[in-house]
Amino acid sequence: MSGRMRLAVCAALATLAAACALLPLVERTAWILQAALLLAVQTAVGVLGRRMPLARPLTVAAQAVAGLLLLTVVFAGSQAVGGLLPGPDAFREFGQLVQEGAEDVGRYAIPAPATTGIRLLLVGGVLVVGLIVDALAVTYGAAAPAGLPLLALYSVAAGLAKDGTDWLWFLVAAAGYLVLLLAEGRDRLARWGRVFGGGPGGAGFAPAGAVPAPVRTGRRIGALVLGIALVVPAVLPTMDSGLLDSPGRGSGAGAGDGGVTSVKPLVALQDSLKQPVNREVMRYRTSTANSRDLYLRIVALDRFDGSSWRSSERRLTELPDELPAPAGLAPDVRADLVNTSVAASGSYAQNYLPLPYPAERVRAEGRWRYEPEGRALVGDRGQTTRGLRYQVSSLLVEPTAEQLTEAPAPPTQVLREYTAVPSSLPSVVARTAREVTAGSANAYQQAVRLQDWFAVDGGFRYDTEVESGTGGQAIAKFLKDKRGFCVHYSFSMAAMARTLGIPSRVAVGFMPGTPQADGSVSVGSKDAHAWPELYFEGAGWTRFEPTPSRGSAPEYTVSQRPSAADPGVPSPAPARSAPAAPPSADDRCTARMKKLEGCVPPPQQAGGGSTGTGGPGAGALAGIAVAVLAVAALPLLPLLWRRRVRARRLADTAPRRRGKAARAAEAGAPGPEGPGRAGAGDAVVAERTLAAWRELTDSAWDYGIPPDEARSPRSAVERIVRLGELDGPAAEAAGRVATAVEQVLYAPRPRPAGGLAAEVGDVRAGLRPARGGAPGCGRRWRRARRSGCCGSSPGAGRRRPHGCGPAGRRPSAAGWGPPCARPGSAADGPSGNREEKRRGAGTSVPAPRRKAWSRKAQWPCSSRRRCQRCSMRSITVRRCRTWPRPGPPRGPAAPGWAPGLGALRQPVTASAAHPSITRKPTTLIQYCPGIITPVMRSAMPTRNPATAW
Amino acid sequence: MTTHDERASLGDPPTRAEPSVGGDLITTAERIRRAVESVIEGKPEVVRLSLTVLLAEGHLLIEDVPGVGKTMLAKALARSIDCSVRRIQFTPDLLPSDITGVSVFDQQRRDFEFKPGAIFAQIVIGDEINRASPKTQSALLESMEERQVTVDGHTYELPGPFMVVATQNPVEMEGTYPLPEAQRDRFMARVSMGYPSPEAEMRMLDTHSVVDPLDDLQPVAHAHDILKLVDAVRTVHVADSVRRYAVDLVAATRQHPELRLGASPRATLHLVRAAKAAAALAGREYALPDDVQALAVAVLAHRLLPTAQAQLGRRTAEQIILELLQRTPVPDPAAQHRWASNGHQPPGARRL
């Protein structure tokens, strides 16, 4: 397994290990297998992309596309085009699923059932994190930052998990990350070209059984760090609420740290209702005898998104001595002051303070802050009710039915905020609300009828075991099944009240509890409750009780019942500006509803939905097909462009396509001509030749030989011939093109050279088999590395028969590269010489020039890197037979050229030079010039150079 | 001090056909090359470089460890050309007047008479030049650059062609002084002999053990031929882009962080002149960037002073120049051409 591949596998493993922390959040764990499978496919795509090799962003993009396709197949197969390609329908399905998943996450207690939405969230999240980790660690070669997405994945899980038993998952996730780091470190070590061995015998790759010392040390360090990370937080007293240990966080904890609060207490609510034993949560004494109406309210949920209620994020203020007067409470409504002292139990930690509504004055120790709109007290910086004792003065508001009946219209601001209903709310809700409240004269009657319908008439049953449905259909499902618990009743009633134009919200808290013998009242966990609050001007927020067999309906609703049932009561004119919906179907849209989201009649909506799901029309299909074709043609654009450019350049080169002047210049350039005409002819010739030259270099670039600016035409062609492994006619043709270009560029008068188009064609034909198949844009646009041929392409290094890179070395490892950048370096050896001979025969390159080149050709291949031995700045990697010399480069040092240096002529193995260093069997030697040069400078026979080591 | 005439005759011009830029130049140069190579075995590139320097009117510095044939090369080059040759053995007690000459009072004519020094020759072999003190070496400065000697207010022209071929040991050797920068700058190129290959060494054993090959060496070209060759070299065309390339290359040495002293404008001049000569020797009437590249190390390296930091890092001037060669872009000919054909000047000095 290559290093990159191992790294990719480790990245996938690390992602999965971090994803394991999500396991306790969901009931069934089958999704992790799904995620593992999809992640494996995605990783495989990445491995393939890197092997091809694609450009890095392209690899990532390919992985992302693969992940999307996989998700489509698994989650939206029926909506996809051909079961695979995600069309608009599939994306709509995704959106729906994600929304449902988000709602389910908010709704269900841990462990949540593995609904499709939640599964999509989990698997998709794991795929996304896996993609980021893979891209960071493998594609971009930075394994350490890949810990960040892993940490994000883990902390999501750890933040959601409610019990403190997830140290095991922490261990798994951290171990996954460490494995990733280990693989990367190993890869980097291997790229150095040597692996630290345990002893002199351990040369070469470490055998499978024996673990190299640094790896062993690394594992020890890793294990130690993991141990410390687990043990130290347990020892430190201040960190007992840290990452691994979060007791008491489960019961509806919200963000109470700053000025903004948002709470999701409902999951906890069902939890506590489902609990087999009724634990005492708090105990209170109150001054009023009527403790039936003393509901302890924790928080108000005032935002309705179609399926569930949440509390808005609101600013918190300092807790005033005297709380402001409750909204909408008129002085003529009877309100008795009630003093209550509460003692919360030690096991009850809630960062909202349960209070009777509306509280006037609160005396509580600790950091409590006040939320004015919902009149809730929020614990600041981890302040909870655990073991807290506090006194509350509150009002017991008792409006009469008449007062409520004659309530004027609520203020516009309240109306706007608390009657907003999302358009996704199923129409059945509003319809049912109208049916139930048909014939009601005013908002109060509507409210009472709703409450009675839920509690008495509607045939609803109280059932805490029911699973509320998913998505926006939850309320509709509840209305159909008629089974549920307080959450369903309060949610539905509040929602229906809103559709009727009555401002409403949901309050969460506790029912009054059970009076004890000593006069106190005990509130248990089974008293947790949710109820709707409706706003009536004059009385303020008024409690209703739609849940059957739970709680107590308020007085003002009970007394109304007979009159509501009485059909003889004449309907007075509606009191509010937005009247309750009359029964007639054509006038369903109130002005407010029109203003808010328009009015779509439900039947039409249903019809539209059915045509929408009927699948895309023919036009859409054709459009998609055209778009797919266009996208498919997009990668071909560079190809087409290149073809066009090539055709134009070579047409320039061909004489028949040129004008008269060109032909004249072609025919009579050597002959006597007028200076002006000759100049024009020269220009034409030069232009033509240069076009051919540009085409030649660009063709070479297409085949993976990037241009090098520091080269003259002649040496550029030499390089193309060498790297492209051209032989025979192709190399000769390239040489002729170079000669022609030299003529044009540097001679006083350019000499016309015919048939350059054919020459360029020959070169292209020669490049094609040598460089393997068609030219790739990827090759050309791959990041050009810095030094000459080393960066041209990994294939170039691999395929070179006389390459000076060590055999078997991974050429793709960045930073190593075959050190063969010098023009005509010694490593070219026979092939280079052969090539020069051919060129000499085929063209007019004079013999002495070749000599000059051969002089240059003996400069040894070298590449620079840091010396590992003396840690000097630079080190030269050369072949052993070629010594660096203080003079200008000369021929390869012949054996025996220096007396006394014979011992060094053999490839210096590490055991001789540095016993601590072992290396792969190779003819390369790494040393810094500083070690060799003194030997060379004073190459005196008497001095034994071996001692210089 | 050892100063002796090897062949004092300026001689008559030979009746041989005059060499021209074309084939005759090459044949003449080829004859000289073969003659020298018959003495110096297995070092064609060194011989070629010395010939290039000769044709480019430069002076040659041969530096290497003792015993590799430096003096042999100088003598062979001098002897294969029919011209006046003098040899100066530089010793620590050599005086400037020994080189330039001295005015002696003639008792009979009651006048000062100028006795020319050893420098008055067409080819001057300065053996072990860095064994003389810098004071003596500076006597060479005027003659090498301006080809004249000024003694007692009189200026004496030196004969043409004029070439100083100096040999020296590496500075690390015992008893040597480093050459002053000014003098190093006057040498067009520095070459190193290097050790011969085993085969060449075997052949050398055969030839040298019987008879000194220098004795057999006959002049193959006259000084006038050389002058004509030099004239021909002067006519070699150097395109704008090649000149710019040479300038870029030299300028890069002046800005290189590892160099304390870059190459001088004279180095640019020498580089282009040597490139011309190389092109002429290759039978071309125009110089290529390749010529500049091939000669850059020999022409530039000995003028550069690496910084102390670079010396600590064992960076040699040769390495730095090779690095610069890889880095400096050859001025894009196509762009240059387009500019030229449009009749505009390129906006910037360099393309990049």
UniProtKB/TrEMBL annotation, chain B:
Report domain ChlI/MoxR AAA lid positions: 252-321
Q: Mind listing the UniProt keywords for this protein, alphabetically? A: ATP-binding, Hydrolase, Nucleotide-binding
ATPase AAA-3 domain location, by residue?
59-188
Q: What is its EC number?
A: 3.6.3.-
* Region listing for Disordered, in residue ranges: 1-22, 332-352
Q: Which SUPFAM superfamilies match?
A: P-loop containing nucleoside triphosphate hydrolases (SSF52540)
Tell whether Hydrolase is among the UniProt keywords.
yes
**Top-tier EC class:** hydrolase
MF terms from GO for this chain are: ATP binding; ATP hydrolysis activity
**What is a single Pfam family found in this protein's UniProt entry?**
AAA_lid_2
| Alphabetized CDD domains for the sequence | AAA
**Family statement:** Belongs to the MoxR family.
Name under which the protein is recorded: ATPase
Organism, by scientific name, is: Streptomyces eurocidicus
